[in-house]
Amino acid sequence: MDTARRSATVSLVLAGLMLASCTGGDQPTTRTPATTTPVANSSKPTASAKPTSFVCPLGSTPGRTGPAKEARPTYFRAAMDAGSGKIVAVETTGTGTTGRTWTLDVCTNTWRMMRPPREPDLNWWMPLVYDADAHLIVGISRDGFVWTYSVEGNTWTPRPWSGGSLPPMLWHATYEPSSGNVIARDPASGDLWSYSVGASEWTRFGKPGPINGYGYGDLMTYDTALRRLVLVLMPGLQSMPSQVWTFEPTSGSWTRQRAVPPQFETGEIAYDQSAQRIVVFGNGVLATYDATKDRWATVPLPRSLSHPLTGAGPLARINLTMVYDPVNERIVVLGGEVLTSPSQATWQPVDDVWAYKVASNTWTKLVPSRQ
């Protein structure tokens, strides 16, 4: 090989190493492979997905465990701000007082209390949603009005109400990239509402959606591969089986899917854009759903991650928060409650953070518990 070709080869290798370092890679200190690996589609999201342009700074170690003693929130809702590389969490008390805003840096796995000048009293049951078009976190206050949060400006802004009908109690929400709107659902009626940040306006879809009589434990997300909303009806303790429905926003039509999901008592949902799988997790049950093929897969969880009496590991927990981190292509599980006394059904809050990768079926501890 001549000198010019050798120099070009060395330059390409160095560039590849710098890019891998910048994106962080996987360098976990606690990493437990599961017993089986679910089939995952390695192709990237469709054009309807809006991938993040954020890249972790050179030298970041997003796969390494963050500090154990740092302050962090409890009892919160969260959303991933893909443009800033931060998970935004709002700690809520449910007592009518304003929440506290936190961010988790997904490049360093460190929490920070943001202390913006003004903070809203958000509904604790309503998830936060990241609006990729507006680059804002969207939340709904207890009085039913919309607030948005800018990570860059560290500012919460109440959105002006344009009039018209104010939606009833909204329990589920997700971002729909085709319209650039947030879509929220009333579990009592099954109605869907679309919210435009630019117009500050709610619009109700004309056709009501399916309901199962319980509703508040249902799960909803947007599948960018299928380009539809996916709704999982969770009957809870009722004897009826779970159901999956999809919603096509343009036509406003609902379709029931044939595949029956695993029976979850409770759980959270997130869409993994890199694997093109919906992930449902809660209280020791993990499953993935390929909506394009209408196929569920229950994923066995390794025993080494389960120790509910001490709160170690991500298993056997309820009231958790779960988001997709597109910067590092992983599902992030935050907080929740773990069972401490099976005989008395006693639960206690936990404050650790875990990451799950669908393609490799591995868990990584991102933030250890302070307990």
List descriptors:
371 residues, mainly beta, Neuraminidase, 6-stranded antiparallel β-sheet, 4-stranded antiparallel β-sheet, 26 strands, disordered N terminus
Strand content: 35-45%
Give the low-confidence spans: 1-50
CATH class: Mainly Beta
CATH topology: Neuraminidase
Q: What CATH architecture do you see?
A: 6 Propeller
Q: How big is the Rg? A: 21 Å
Mean pLDDT: 82
Q: N-to-C SSE series?
A: HEEEEEEEEEEEEEEEEEEEEEEEEEE
Count the beta strands.
Answer: 26
Helical amount among residues, as a percent range?
under 10%
What is the assigned CATH homologous superfamily?
Kelch-type beta propeller
Structural class: mainly beta
Can you summarize the main beta sheet? 6 strands, antiparallel
First-last Cα distance? 58 Å
Tally of distinct domains: 1
Question: Which descriptor suits the 3D outline?
Answer: globular
User: Helix segment count?
Assistant: 1
In summary, what is this structure?
The protein contains 1 helix and 26 strands.
Explain the overall architecture.
The structure is a single chain. The protein has 371 residues and is mainly beta. It has a single domain (72-367), classed as Kelch-type beta propeller (Neuraminidase). It is 6% helix and 38% strand. The protein is built from 1 helix and 26 strands. Strands 1, 22, 23, 24, 25 and 26 form a 6-stranded antiparallel beta sheet that branches. The longest helix is centred in the first third of the chain and has 21 residues, at 3-23. The radius of gyration is 21 Å and the shape is globular. The termini are far apart.
